[in-house]
Amino acid sequence: MKRILCYGDSLTWGYDPEKRVRIDPEYRWTGVLADKLRGEAVVIEEGQNGRTIATDDPAEGEKNGIRYIVPCLESQSPLDIMVLMLGTNDLKRKFNYCASDVACEMERFLQKVTAHNIFKMQGNMKILLVSPPHVGENIRESWLGDSFGYERAREVSMKLAPLYADLAERYGAAFLDASKFVTVSPSDSIHLDATEQKKLGEAIFGKLKEERYI
Questions:
Q1: φ, ψ for residue 6, nearest 5 deg
Q2: Count of CB atoms situated within 10 Å of the CB of 210
Q3: Could you tell me the pTM of the whole model?
């Protein structure tokens, strides 16, 4: 069976925007994907709340995604596919990044993964790069609003998809714009509820099929 690594942040971990706990496995997008691929693939969940692409977080600690990716690839090897969705936490006010800054982080990440894939994995791993859903319209009313700098985070989030699409093309990855399929919950304007998690799982499954990765 194929092995699929799903590498992301709380949107992959399955943070419930209303209850503020983890959504049950079968309702997370990774669980939906696993159910659709039952008997064909093993889906490996690697989501961490607060994970950034390539930035150290002085307040929250060990959240830097680029620092953990090679150990993760090695520990979960062999791998056939990586579904990569990061960038939401890089929108936090403390980092003060513009969209091109976030894209530059993602390019560094893809450079590292591509090199490891070529030299350590014989180029066998396919990558699906997913641009995260847009920060919601109600971010000013969200308990997370101050952390994300309110409307600025939404504005930057809406500029990421074309930059990620360009990176995917340049690094030989498939690309999916999550904002075309899902909308974050008005409860916190950052996370996906169970209904939207299911939609994302179905969209990712469809894209993997379309690309003939599975």
A1: -105, 105
A2: 11
A3: 0.98
